[in-house]
Structures are given as structure tokens and as C-alpha cells.
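Journal club prep — side note

Before the paper discussion, L.F. wants everyone to see what a predicted structure for a comparable chain looks like in C-alpha cell form. Sequence:
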Amino acid sequence: DSAARLDVPARDRRCGYLFQQDALFPHMTVRENVAFGAGNSAARVDDLLAEFRIDGLAARLPREISGGERQRCAIARTLASGPEFLLMDEPAQGLDIILRRELHAVLRRVRQQFGLPMILVTHDISEALSLGDALFLFSQGRIVQQGPARATFENPSSAEAARLMGVGAVLSGIVENSSEQEQRTVIRSGGLLIETTFLPGARSGDSVDFCVHADKVRAAPLNSSSSSACVLQLDAADEDVDRVHLLYVSGLMATVSRSDYQAAAGAKQWAFEFPDGAITLLGPPHG
């Protein structure tokens, strides 16, 4: 802390650091790697090897074990020095989905059993939401937004925050009608007419910036029973493991289950509804 004129040597900071790559010493065995930070405490080394299920690999070199086993060894080595908190630099970077899930499970167990504060640096918002209690959103070295992880994701404070988190489409429009009594707000954005539940702070005639949450809008193929006033042309579909992310020509986005997308059978016209929570106003109205 330069302002407070504090300069604690790295070895005395009691910070456990987990690298983006496991960074194990290649010439040392699993046991020797873990023992590196444990001083003369052989019992602590034995406990950590057992805790992370690598005691059967103690005599092997890092190149002789799997990626997931190397990550567990790296975490055990970090904890061996008795840190007061953990700093992790994208530890799941480059891992396949199975190893990523295994690492996340290990980190949750570390937090539960060791009770250490943990700071995770990641570009993956789903990872941040899965593991984090609090979220600090950075852009170009400054904090754009901070707060409880899920609440921050669901309520971006600005267009920049919404884009960085990939919440959904960021649009501008004019409030055509907003009635607290009717619990209804209508916003026109270009050719879109978006009707949703009442948005506090939105008044008829206001120019507003707003975010449409891709995971909260309701999108379905257009059919004879569709009553939505908002109908869009599908532009692209990005298939995930169990979800499909849909992009429409207006820039609007939606996330649907794989089964719902497959049931749509290639439909190009989709009807939209905007339930409570699907729309977030970004900042105060403007002229």
C-alpha cells in the first residue's frame, strides 16, 4: 500500500497464490512439492496429501499424473504454508469441462473446511457466479461495479457493466407508457415494442438505456396462438452443453433449453415476452 507507506516482503504476506498453470516443480515428487511450503511438518504434508486424495501419488513426478491431480497438488502445496487467504489467477483456464467441475468442487471444499477468504480472478462470469459470494467487476484497472455476486449480475449499474458480464442486450429507447397503478411499462426501441412489469424510475416520454436479460426473457417460436406484440427474426444460435443462446436481428438475445430449441425445428420467427426481472434500467433517464 503505497499511500500508507507499507511494503511487506512477499514471503511475509501470508498470501497463498494459485497460479493460472499449476506451476509445480517438475523435478520434485508430489510429496516434495507439497512439503516445499510446509517447513519441517511431515504430519501436515501427510494430512494434505490425504485430504486432496493424492497420497497414493506421493512418489510420482508432476509429468506422471493427470491435470486434475496436478491442480489438487498445487492447492495442497499452497495450503501447506498456512496462508491467511488465497489468491487464484484463473486456475481453471485451459481445463476441460470435467476437470473444471472437479476443480470447482475442490475449491468449495477448501473454503468450507479451511475457512480461508478466497480471491478468484476470472474472465468467466459463470465461474464467478458459481464460486463467488461477492463480485468485483474490473475494466481497464478500475472497479466498474461491486456487490453480492448474483445481485450484481442481475442488476448491472451501467451499459459497460452489462456488456462485461454478458448479461444480454443493451438497448436505448423511449418510454411510451409507465403506470405504477397498472404495473406496466412500455418502451419503444427502434422497431421493438417492449412491454414489461412496472419499472420504478421510468416515466412516459423518458429516454432510457436498458438491459434485456437473455436468461429471463421468454422466447418461443411464433405460432397461431402467440399473443406477443414483439416478434423477431432469428439470426444465429450458439449451442452450449444444455442451453442454446439465440441472437436476433435486432440485437436482442435469449437463452433457451436445448430441448425447447430442438422442438422449435428451425423456426425463424420468434415471439417474445418480458416478465418481471427481464428488464433493468441502466442509470437515470436522459434527454
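L.F.'s comment for the group: The helical segments are 30-35, 42-51, 67-80, 97-114, 125-131, 149-154, 159-165, 258-264. Keep this in mind when we get to the figures.
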